[in-house]
Amino acid sequence: MKILIAITKSNYGGAQRYVYDVATSLSKTNDVTVLFGGQGLLAQKLAGAGVQTISIPELGRDMSIAKDISVFFRILKILKKEKPDALILNSSKIGGVGSLAGRIAGIRKILFVAHGFAWNEDRSFVAKTFIRSLYSLIFLFSTKIIAVSDAIRAQGSRLPFGKKKIVVVKNGVGPVPLLDRAAARQTLGIPENAFVIGTIAELHPIKGLSYAIEAASLISIPEFQYVILGEGELRADLEKQIQEERLGGKVFLKGFVKDAASYMKAFDIFLLPSLSEALGYVVLEAGQAGASVIATSVGGIPEVIENERTGLLIRPKSPKEIANAVKLLYENKEKADLFAKNLHESVLKDFSLEKMLSETEKALAD
User: Fold this and answer.
1) Which of these, 202, 218, 195, 196, lies nearest to 321 by C-alpha position?
2) Rounded to an integer, what distance in angstroms lies between the CA atom of residue 362 and that of residue 344?
């Protein structure tokens, strides 16, 4: 098949990782091209893997009527020239312009992959209503919807055309190349005797990092540190919070770290304090690394973390619950190790990369 995979941004978050995994797998037996905005890390990784790419510089997440119209006609021109058998769309912006352009161009298979819904972010009622209407149009123009979790399927099924078109293909991960504890801590500048809570996340409001930092002020464990790997728009705000709460010796923003998941063994506990998640890759990576996990009970996370069996689930926006969960695992190492072992086995069995790719190919073929 000739397949065009499209995504709005070419940074390397969860959706971009999905695109990379699917593109590199499908390109072994198909003619695959990936279209995106900009020239971020995704572009570099695809080039390194020998996958064909098309960059549209003006394609971005922010709304701009003039730019979006230009992007639409650019994509329509590309589709008419390339004539793909299938179009796989990732993220809401490219889902909107891409599905309409695909219909006009006569593309037979248009798959929209729902990695999450923008109405789950902190927005006004009017904004959320408008966003739902846009997703309804994406669902109308697409021939099939892939949801990355049961939670996303449940939300998407409430939209017009959703229940009929939606299928679930849960995210999966392959082997994570891990540094040992000593090497990971040395590289990150973490003392060997520190008890470390770690988070890998974009510095974005949806990740709930301000609540995790507040929780750090409630934790009295000796040699405690909270280490965040990632970069983003909230850096200045989080640095201000750390300063105001006098947490300079406890909380550290390490910035962007390449292949961040390979440093998982630097952490005694992995924390994901997100306010919304479809089905976070990083929790799967933590499980594969054998980490003890605390995560918020949002979106598809409870499909990975079963409370008090494969980790601890807490409510979002609750610094006190974060602190209590950390205390529980710190004081019960045998229990923490059992949770980590159970999660590791669950990820290998139910969330493998091979399973995700096989189910994606089946959805594409149907």
Assistant:
1) 218
2) 26
SS (H, E, C) 36-97: EECCCHHHHHHHHCCCEEEECCCCCCCCCHHHHHHHHHHHHHHHHHHCCCEEEEECHHHHHH
Looking at the DSSP bridge assignments, the partners of residue 54 are: 35
Residue ranges of domains in the chain, CATH in brackets: 2-172+352-365 (3.40.50.2000), 181-350 (3.40.50.2000)
Burial environment of residue 134 by CB neighbours within 10 A (0 to 12, 13 to 18, 19 or more): middle
Q: Are 73 and 65 in contact (CB under 8 A)?
A: no
pLDDT of 231 higher than 90: yes
Nearest CA among 212, 149, 152, 200 for reference residue 176:
200
Eight-class DSSP state of 230: B
Give the DSSP H or E segment for 4. Answer: strand 2-9
Q: Which two tokens stand for residue 131?
A: 């966003």
Say yes or no to pLDDT of 63 above 80: no
- Scan for tokens 């002020």, then name that residue: 217
Average of pLDDT values for 25-50?
Answer: 94
Question: Under DSSP, is residue 207 helix (H, G, I), strand (E, B) or coil?
Answer: helix
* CB of 42 closer than 8 Å to CB of 12: yes
**Residue 195 and residue 201 in contact, taking contact as beta carbons nearer than 8 Å:** no
Residue range 159-197, pLDDT digits in tens: 988 889 999 999 999 888 999 999 999 999 999 999 999
Give pTM, 2 decimals.
0.89
Provide the 8-state DSSP code for 217.
T
The predicted pLDDT at position 366 comes to 83
Query: Angle formed by the axes of helices 333-350 and 281-288, to 10°?
Result: 110
> Which residue has tokens 């995106």?
36
Task: Give backbone dihedrals phi and psi of 122, rounded to 5 degrees, phi first.
Answer: -75, 95
Question: What is the rounded CA–CA span in Å between residue 88 and residue 289?
Answer: 30
